[in-house]
Amino acid sequence: MQLSGDVVLLITHSGDFFTIDKVAEALLKKGAQPFRLDTDKFPLELQLTAQFDKSKSYHTIEYNNQSISTEQVQAVWLRRIWEPNITPELAPKFREACIKESKTTLDSFWDSLKQARWVDNLERIDYASNKLRQLRIASEVGFAIPQTLVTNKAAAAREFFEQVNGKMVSKLLTALSRSMQANSSFFMYTSVVKEENLQDAESLRYCPMVFQEQIPKQQELRVVYVNGEVFVGALNADVYAAAKVDWRKPGVDVGAWQHYELPDEVVLRLQTFMGRLGLLFGSFDFILTPSGEYVFLEVNPTGEWGMLEKDLNLPIADAIADALLQPDK
């Protein structure tokens, strides 16, 4: 069935729930027509067609017995892009080729949506995802940041360990997983580094890592920024003692999220920071230290926020819908 009228395209995957549903509901209440595109269903269950002639190009999406043309798309929410799902029965060389071609087709297809309003566009997300760039800009706009070392040199890691008096954590510059699900073996969480861990530090020559001073915590904050608005959830350090390094770690009961209000000067810095990155949306991680300092850790341009809407009833989905429907200036 060909849908008529304007649509808002929601780019995600088939395992996504709650957040995608809340945004779709908010759009419907505002009179908009959402169209969900599960990227992992391409190419087996989702069809994309691009046709070009001398004067015009034609692009269509067919999924779940519905079809739209890209000319109908007024806005795009880039929630998640997952790899195409290709049947394992194919011989490995053919399967790899099909995945590569499918990913390239998806990447090319987004170009046909450039006239739409994106929250946010791929180029800005890629630019903003560089964690070292984030730290630089955060410092430039006035945020405190942890002492940080990125290295593939074992001696440098050992020296930094001494410099921060043995209070050190490690992380990667990029997530190795597209998911934070508990059964994912490819997501590396922020981890405490002990002196004995550095005995094998020579393995850094294969892969550089990020090392940071371990910041003392009074509260850990998840700050969700949507087009100038901020929504904040806080976790008290004494409530989630088992998750003091990374509350996202599977199997840790972090307790209830609490409402929290940021000082005006912190909100202004956030707005300046997001303006520098050119983003309308971002999920920030901050530490509030016992001395009352706000320490910037990172921002995820497509980060999670469902727990804040669910536990604190924060209207994040409604704000995202408003950002999608707001005309570009």
UniProtKB/TrEMBL annotation:
One of its GO terms (molecular function) is metal ion binding. Keywords: ATP-binding, Ligase, Nucleotide-binding. InterPro entries: ATP-grasp, ATP_grasp_MvdC, MvdD-like_ATPgrasp. SUPFAM superfamilies: Glutathione synthetase ATP-binding domain-like. It comes from the Bacteria. One of its GO terms (cellular component) is cytoplasm. Residues 135-325 form the ATP-grasp domain. Pfam families: ATPgraspMvdD. GO terms for biological process: SOS response. PANTHER family: BETA-CITRYLGLUTAMATE SYNTHASE B-RELATED, RIBOSOMAL PROTEIN S6 MODIFICATION PROTEIN. NCBIfam families: ATPgraspMvdC (TIGR04185). This is Carboxylate--amine ligase.
